[in-house]
């Protein structure tokens, strides 16, 4: 009996030591979200910017990333773990730790519903409301495999954070179109962007903002404009409806589709914009065609 008691005491002591000092989180909140991991990640980034903190979301993968929230006298770490269930549903588990009061929280939590727990639940309920409002204002339709268009075009090279892609485009919209009009260059279709490098870890996007044009001998020579040809190739295609700020939600949807159907793709999407955001109107009627080029067989 004495040996059993010592063993039990040792196990309880080890468990208590793990709980108080080694357990990585103080509290965990789990919920289901009607979105894929990429959409959840981008929405957390957008939601994070609405808070009284300038600490960016720390990316590890679309399935795991960390958010640091400063609340009163506390620095609280939210570790997001997102697991897709199917095309439009994910399981979300958020491990939450108060970096300054972790031990106190772990002591109090088993005995009462603490302010820390209530605050954590309230914070994630706020996020869920933010996410649902976002989802109500966008629509992504996967069309499957299609042919990427071929065109000659005039382009401006840009590099911005991913969420500022549309801002970069709009900042150059009038510049590029006015130069083409002034030089009587014939535009041959709606404007588009061609992603050159998509760096999720650094949250940087390099891309060309372009107008399709008819090639001629009188093209303007400007240091910020270059000319190139887009060649036809096979690609996965989607249609995105919503504000162009969030059109990258279609990128993630195409990547999920490619993964599910074992289709190798180049993560260099091309977006074609059919509406002028300066004209306003119902954003759900704005149309973007999004292409994810297939990898060419070697």
UniProtKB/TrEMBL annotation:
It comes from Flagellimonas alvinocaridis. It comes from the Bacteria. It holds the Pfam family GyrI-like. This is AraC family transcriptional regulator. The lineage of its organism: Bacteria, Pseudomonadati, Bacteroidota, Flavobacteriia, Flavobacteriales. Residues 159-295 form the GyrI-like small molecule binding domain. InterPro entries: GyrI-like (IPR029442), Reg_factor_effector_dom_sf (IPR011256). SUPFAM superfamilies: Probable bacterial effector-binding domain.
């Amino acid at each position: 009996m004495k040996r059993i008691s010592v063993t039990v005491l040792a196990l309880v002591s080890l468990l208590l030591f793990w709980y108080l000092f080694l357990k990585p989180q103080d509290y965990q909140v789990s919920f289901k979200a009607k979105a894929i991991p990429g959409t959840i990640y981008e929405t957390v980034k957008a939601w994070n910017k609405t808070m009284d903190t300038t600490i960016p979301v720390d990316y590890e993968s679309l399935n795991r990333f960390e958010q640091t929230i400063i609340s009163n006298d506390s620095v609280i770490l939210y570790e997001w773990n997102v697991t897709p269930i199917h095309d439009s549903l994910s399981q979300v588990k958020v491990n939450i730790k108060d970096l300054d009061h972790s031990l106190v929280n772990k002591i109090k939590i088993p005995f009462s519903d603490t302010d820390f727990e209530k605050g954590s639940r309230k914070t994630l309920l706020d996020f869920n409301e933010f996410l649902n409002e976002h989802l109500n204002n966008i629509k992504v339709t996967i069309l499957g495999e299609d042919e990427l268009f071929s065109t000659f075009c005039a382009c401006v090279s840009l590099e911005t954070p991913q969420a500022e892609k549309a801002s970069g485009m709009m900042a150059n919209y009038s510049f590029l179109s006015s130069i083409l009009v002034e030089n009587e260059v014939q535009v041959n279709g709606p404007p588009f962007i061609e992603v050159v490098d998509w760096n999720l870890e650094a949250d940087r996007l390099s891309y060309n903002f372009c107008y399709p044009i008819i090639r001629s001998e009188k093209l303007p020579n400007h240091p910020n404009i270059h000319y190139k040809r887009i060649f036809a190739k096979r690609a996965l295609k989607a249609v995105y409806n919503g504000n162009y700020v969030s059109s990258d939600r279609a990128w993630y949807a195409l990547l999920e589709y490619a993964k599910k159907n074992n289709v190798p793709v180049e993560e260099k999407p091309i977006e074609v914009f059919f509406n002028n955001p300066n004209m306003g109107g119902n954003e759900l009627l704005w149309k973007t065609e999004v292409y994810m080029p297939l990898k060419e067989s070697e």
